[in-house]
UniProtKB/TrEMBL annotation:
Pfam families hit by this protein: DBI_PRT, Nitroreductase
Organism this protein belongs to: Pseudonocardia bannensis
Catalytic activity: 5,6-dimethylbenzimidazole + nicotinate beta-D-ribonucleotide = alpha-ribazole 5'-phosphate + nicotinate + H(+)
Full protein name: Nicotinate-nucleotide--dimethylbenzimidazole phosphoribosyltransferase
Job description of the protein: Catalyzes the synthesis of alpha-ribazole-5'-phosphate from nicotinate mononucleotide (NAMN) and 5,6-dimethylbenzimidazole (DMB).
One GO term (biological process): cobalamin biosynthetic process
Amino acid sequence: MNPGDAEAFYRIVAGRRDVRTGFRPDVPVDDAVLARVLGAAHAAPSVGFSQPWDFLVVRDAGVRARVHALVAARRTAYAASLPGARAAAFAGMKIEAILDTPLNVVVTCDPTRGGRHTLGRHTQPSMGPYSTALAVQNLWLAARAEGLGVGWVSFFDDDGLGEVAALLGLPDHLEIVAYLCIGHVEAFPAEPELAAAGWARRRPLSWAVHHETYGHRALPGEVPMDLLSETVAAIRPVSEEARAAARDRLDRMTKPRGSLGQVEDVAVTLSGIAGACPPPLPEPAAVAVFAGDHGVYAQGVTPWPQEVTGQMVANFLAGGAVVNAFARQQGAEVCVVDVGVASPLDPVPGLLPRKVAAGTADMTTGPALTPDQARAAVEVGIETARDLVAAGNRCLVTGDMGIANTTAAAALICAFTGADPAEATGRGTGIDDATLTRKTDVVRRALARHRPEPSDPLGVLAAVGGLEHAALAGFVLGAAALRVPVLLDGVNAGAAALVAAALSPESAGVCLAGHCSAEPGHGLALAHLGLDPLLDLRMRLGEGTGALLALPVVQGAARALHDVATFDSAGVADKDA
């Protein structure tokens, strides 16, 4: 290697972009340049040196027009499936590169090349496509070195890939791995287009590097930390400077001072979280519904059968629950996380399988969770928050599902606030007086057995908490570390926020109370957290429903700081000037 080669290589890696627009169709790609780029792709490593790739160069305008039509139809169908805020962002992402580049390259994989005894592939057939992906990466980097832009078209479903294969005359045994658009560009964007459009963020490298065992993250040379410790260490107080700037701007806006009432408080809170005025608009938004079952169900605290938890998870995934209807109305995404459902769940699109345990143990006969389970469930919530924010979401909404989870929530609220079980225990799914008496006694017995100490929040979780409560606590902590607002739903979210605040008091600063549940413990939790609910509709469903109804209020508060003129800028007289 020559001096400077490493620096040039890393510069090319950092400057590689998936280019969608700005191609120059009038500038051809020189054949010698194309040969070098394809030669770099052909030099990629492959399992068993099988070299399973082929490169089909497509220049014919008519063929590319037919491919474009296939992609356009599937792009339209995909756009229709997106939540409203996502659909708006997606509208600007075009597929015209198929036509605007002088050539397209289809990269295929032959899964049979090298025969049945190919080293490394005989037990892992997927190593063929993986090897082909390495060739695509080499092609991409070489194209960047040559000043060529590359765009990867990925809207094909299986039927669409079959139509493209037939159009190009591909043998049946070949698989299309990548459809690439290649050409000269006006300029390379300074950052990935999806990041610039707010569609997604780049994950920090420190999130992705683990040492010895999964979960001990650190950059090389740093001391590894578990995810919970790393997250808590990253949480900082909200910005008082930004809060003051927001309050000042609100006072100078073309309206009587304080006339927006609590909406102004929300605007100030959002600015403090972001450390800027105006703050980023809290959209897109995503609601994470954490689902888990409870061993305390055996104490007869609810008339609903425990299998309803798993059945409702299926309902969420099918789009048939109240949370789905409200999320569609607000343009929010619904993310369903199995952190502890007792019944096995089939892997389906939209479900995040993160099961720590098949439900908790009965907290009246022993700890609900082991310490390791409590920590693991908290870290599920942190990871979920990280992933949703990295995917471009700017507001996180809490959701929950778990038969008997309000019993555990009441116990958590009593442990952290000192309330009596009779004050904190409610009717949950609508239980009768006799069941309420039994439920209250269950909470009292669990607290007497464990005597949970609020100074040990993980110990409290392990004693009387639920897996979804632990995950929700982590969800709040993860958002706080990233300075993203969290819109809390009902009593289960309130209980979880108490856990998060005990782990990191500053985490409460990113929380907004979407509503006040009819569950009595919720008001106790909110008072302890110092949060005022935005709505009071006597709701007690959970799922994230009450918080979703408050989402437009939160978004409107930020929008006001962005869009409303001040007296000075509008030329309107201020009576207090």
